[in-house]
């Protein structure tokens, strides 16, 4: 994944996105088509998507997500928060943290909820997906019971699809 850092042109980002998400060692079962189908189901059922932390490949997220949805109305239902924890604290000083979650994850989720006008009292409307088990455990302790551990297996996609088709 480190090879994706430093992609500067749109063409490089598109090439990197394709290489990343088409590689079965790095992406989920079914690749781009499977994720695109999942995003469409989520949006068609009135849900929103917030991508708030994406580790080593931030340069390609906008390119990839933009390619997953076709109409502007759907693109407006996707919030991509791309900044450091320090920038979040500086830009969103009044956001309420979700406790007892770790501060970093809590801040990202709180900002995303604020973006979609979801009050902190309605954590049941949040589906939290993370690739670290301790973050999933922390989210559950904080009241986010719709928490899914992201892995590259079919069960992860089935869990996500369940939430995509059900009202929260």
Which helices and strands appear, and what pairs or packs with what?
Blueprint: H1 10-22, H2 31-44, E1 49-51, H3 58-68, H4 72-75, E2 78-80, H5 85-91, H6 103-115, E3 127-130, H7 133-142, E4 146-149, H8 154-165
Parallel strand pairs: 1-2, 3-4
Helix pairs in contact: 1-3, 2-8
**Number of folding domains?**
1
Rg calculated over all Cα atoms: 16 Å
> How many individual β-strands?
4
The spatial strand order of the largest sheet comes to 1-2
Query: What is the beta-strand fraction?
Result: 5-15%
Low-confidence stretches: 1-5
How large is the count of helical segments? 8
Helix content: 40-55%
> What's the pLDDT, averaged over the residues?
75
SS-derived structural category: mainly alpha
| Overall geometric form | globular
Terminal-residue CA separation = 34 Å
SSE ordering: HHEHHEHHEHEH
- What composes the largest sheet? 2 strands, parallel
Short description:
The chain is mainly α. It has helices at residues 10-22, 31-44, 58-68, 72-75, 85-91, 103-115, 133-142, 154-165; strands at 49-51, 78-80, 127-130, 146-149.
Note down, in words, how this protein is organized.
With 168 residues, the protein is mostly helical. The chain has one domain. A two-stranded parallel ribbon has the order 1-2. A two-stranded parallel sheet has the order 3-4. The termini are far apart.
Features:
168 residues, mainly alpha, two-stranded parallel ribbon, 8 helices, 8% strand
